[in-house]
C-alpha cells in the first residue's frame, strides 16, 4: 500500500495533463472511462472507493483512479479479466463559488448563442448556412447595444438628466445633490453636459466589465488547444461538424467578436452623451464651432458603427482546421478607437454651454424603437432562412420543423427587452418617489413592461393545457403499469405514483410547443408594444378618443403590474441562481438547461457564459487517443451519464477513424436524441448519430420511461436495435420482495447503475475489449 501511495503522489505531480499515466501498458489492458452528468459528483462516488488519486488534470477538471489502480500498468496480469476504471470529473467547469450565479444575468447572450447552433440540417447550402450564422451574430450585436443603451437610460437619462435636474427628486436622493443645480448652487458638476459625462462612466464601466469577464474566461477555456490533426476528406461535408479539428477552438472568432461588441458598447455610450449635447448646439443661434464639432463627432461614431458591423459580418467560425491565428491589430485597435471616441464625446459634452437646462427626457425613444424593429426584422428573416434550410433536408424529429433557432433568437431578444425595460421602469419608480418629479423612461420601455402580464396569462393557460394532457396520459399509463407489473398485488397509490412519474417525464417532449407559443406571442406582443409607443408619442392624451383612453388606461395598469413583476422576478432570478451553485438539488433542477446552453462554443455572442466543452472535449479526446495509441490493439469503453454522454460522443467524433474503432460507448439517461437531436439537428441529427454508431466499436444506450431527460437514440435502419436497450423497468420492484424488502424507489434520471441491466451491458462491452473476443452485435434486444 505504501508503494501504491508513493506512486500516486509521484503520478499526480509528474504526469502531464495531456497524456496517459507513465509506464508500459501491455496489450489487452482495458480502460473504462466514466463521465458524470449534470449536477456533478465526486470521484469517490464514481469509482465506488473512498481512496482516489488524481492522475492527470488540475483542480478544474481531472481524471481520477482508485489508489490501488494507480500502478495498473505495472501489473498487467492483474487486469486481464477486468478493466482499469477511471473517472473524469468536470463539474467545476460549470459550478464553483456562488459568484458564478451572476452569469445568469448574461442569459440573453447565452440564449442567442444557442440559436446559432440550432440551424436545420442542410447539404450543399453553404451560402445559406453562412447567412444563417450572420443573422444570428447581428441579433447578438443588437443585444449588446440594447443592454448598454438600457444602462445609459438608467445612469444618464433617469439619474443624471431627469432626477438631478429636478429639485424634488434631487433633494430626496442626497447622493445626487452635487449634480443638481438647484441643490449645489450651480456647482461645476451641475451643468447638464458635465452631469452626463460623469454618469457615462457607469455604462462604460459595464462594457469594460463584460470585456474583462469575456477575456478572462476566454483565456481559461478557448485557449485550451485540442489535439492537432488533419481533417479527413469526409469530415468537411460529413453528417456533423463536431468532428472537425477546429470545432472546439474558437479563439480567433471570440476575440474578434469581443473587440467588436466592446467597441459597440463604447460607441453606444458615446452616442448617448454626444447626441444630447449636439441637439442643443443645433438650436438656432447656437455656436457654429460646437455645431461643427457635433457633426464631426456623430459622423465618426457612425463610421465606427459601420466598422463594427463589418467586423461582425466579415468572418464566421473556422472549423476545418485548427486556426491558431489572432487578429491582434483588430482586437486591440477597434476597442481603443471606440474608447478614444468616447473620451472625445465626454469632453465635447462637458464644454460649458450657458442656457442649457435639463428638461423632459433624453432622445432615447428612437434608439429603443429602432433596436426593437431591427430585432423583429432579423428574427423574421432568420425564420425564412431556417425554413429554406429545413426544406432542403427535412427532419421529421427536428423541433418546430427547423424553426427552433429563430424561436430561441426571439426569446433572447425578448429577455433583453424585458430586462432593459424592467430595470429602467423599476429605477424610475425608485427615483420618482413623488410620482410627478420626473418624466420616466422612454415610452417603448414602459410599453414593453406592459407586455409581461398578458404573456404570463398565456403561459399559465399553456401550463394548464399541459397539465390536462399529462393527466390524460396518466390515465393511460395506469393500465400500462398494471401490465408491466402483472401478477403483483395491486396498490392503487403505488400505481398512480408510477403512472404520474411517467406522465410528467413526457413534458420534456412538449418543449417545442412551449417555445413556439411563447416566441410567437412575444413577437406579436412586441410589435403591439412598438405600435403602442408610436401611437402614444403621436397622439396627445388630451386629444385621444375613448378608444385610446381605454387602451392607454389598460396599458398603464399592465405597465405598473409588469414593472413590479420584473422587479420581483429579477430578485428571484438572482436568488435562485445563487442557490443553484450552493445547493446540489437546486442545481440539478436547472442544470440541464444551463449545461445545454454553455455546452456550445461562443459563436454568436462573446459575452455569453464560457463554453465548458472547449475544455472537457479536448480533455477526453487526449485521454482516449493517448490510451488507444499506446500499443497496437488497445481499446477502451467510455461510459457517460446524461450530459456526460454528450461529452463522450463529442470526444469520440474528435478521434481519428482508427482510434474511434477501438472505443466502445455506453450511454444512459442520455439526451443525445431527445434534446440535442431535436434542437440541434445539424450536429446531432439522425445521420450524425448513425455515423457515430457505425464508426465506434460498439454503442449501447439505456433509458427509462420515467426519465424526463434521457431517452432512446432512435437510430434508423438496422443499427437501431443494436444501440437502444429496451426501456428499463422503474421501479425495479412493484412491492416488497426478497431482493427488495423495502419499497424500491422510482429512480427516474438517476442511479442507472442500480439496475441489473446496467451491469450486464457494461460486462458485454468490456468483453468486446478483451483479446480474442470477436466483435458481435448484441442479440435479443429490441428497439426502444
From TrEMBL:
Ranges annotated as spanning the membrane: 131-151, 196-213, 259-280, 292-313, 334-351, 371-390, 402-424, 444-468, 511-534, 558-577
Coiled-coil spans in chain: none
Keywords recorded for this protein, A-Z: Membrane, Transmembrane, Transmembrane helix
Chain spans, region Disordered: 1-50, 224-243
Keyword Transmembrane: yes
InterPro entries: AB_hydrolase_fold (IPR029058)
Family annotation (Gene3D superfamilies): alpha/beta hydrolase (3.40.50.1820)
SUPFAM superfamilies listed in its UniProt record: alpha/beta-Hydrolases
Name of this protein: Integral membrane protein
Organism: Streptomyces regalis
